[in-house]
Amino acid sequence: MPIVYYDSNCVYCYNYAIWLIQKGLSRRYQFASLQGDTAQNLLSNYPETQQYDSVILQEGDHLEYKSDAITTLITSLTNYKWLGVLLHLTPKFIRDLGYQLFADNRNHMWKTHWHQPNDYEKSFFID
């Protein structure tokens, strides 16, 4: 079962997870906080992941980071597959630059709120 690790201290990261669920993300995906117990297993089994404080997608032993993970997740959404394909066609260095600019400035951008999840949305989160 693929696991999406996200920064649970980031309102945008959390709300992105909720957005994916609301847009039809497959039930085979689960979400785990980078600050949680599940992520500790990831960090100890895959030491290279310690350098990332951003989204990580784990499917078995295959790991994707930053814009690659975002692109894969969006491509998995039936109604947004076109957007995922467009992102995939964008050169990786440009996607990662955009991702990093957003991540570095997320605390200085517009304000948003923490979404209150319903039971269905909660069922995707393992910690």
UniProtKB/TrEMBL annotation:
GO terms for molecular function: protein-disulfide reductase activity. It holds the Pfam family DCC1-like. InterPro entries: DCC1-like, DCC_oxidoreductase. It comes from the Bacteria. PANTHER family: DUF393 DOMAIN-CONTAINING PROTEIN, THIOL-DISULFIDE OXIDOREDUCTASE DCC. This is DUF393 domain-containing protein.
